[in-house]
Amino acid sequence: MTTDVLAARPELVEHRATMLDGIWRGSGVPPRLLELARLRVAALLHDEVGSATRTPVAVAAGFDEDVADALPSWPTDPRFTPTDRAALALAEQFVMDCHGITDAQVAELRDALGDQATVGFLIALALFDGFSRAATVLRGF
Amino acid sequence: MSTTPRLPSAIEGRPPDLRSVMAHQPGLQRDFSVLYGTFWSHGVLDHPTKEVARLRNARTTDCGY
Q1: 32-91 in chain A: CB under 8 A from chain B
Q2: CA distance A95 to B36
Q3: What does the pLDDT read at residue B1?
Q4: pTM for the whole structure
Q5: Is the pLDDT of residue A10 over 60?
Q6: Backbone angles phi, psi at A82, to 5 degrees
């Protein structure tokens, strides 16, 4: 969680919380998909705290811990749907090199989620990536 | 990287760009503006230093926007 490391800037904590609440409750992206992406981004960035955290909205929606355990095997594990795979492939590429994202990858996600939720998913990735990096730097682990 | 927009504008009559595509999520767009505005209007770093960091980040990610 980044709340602790941003404690010196309470106004940022508040606005960040508002934005994240909009992502989780109002973006139209299923909480399960958001949690999968958030956890994958955290793992790629070696954000140990983010990886160990579970988002209450996702848990309340029935997020399955077995799926979290299987996340490193998402390309082949049958528990992941084609939409999961489209979103996770895009999330990984977003973190590693966003210029490597292809037209086909975006089109696949648009087909699955629609335009509004696709935009919401990309904004979510930006937040997950940015704040995970910031938290890791500020914590030092 | 594609040179054609991958998502349509959500604003009638306006071409797709960052703002018009983000308009598919007006609530998030508003919340982002508040958060981003707070970064710029609060804190101890002066604006030139923040701008250097922003530009460096944009160049590193090859963001033409």
Answers
A1: none
A2: 21
A3: 64
A4: 0.91
A5: yes
A6: -55, -35
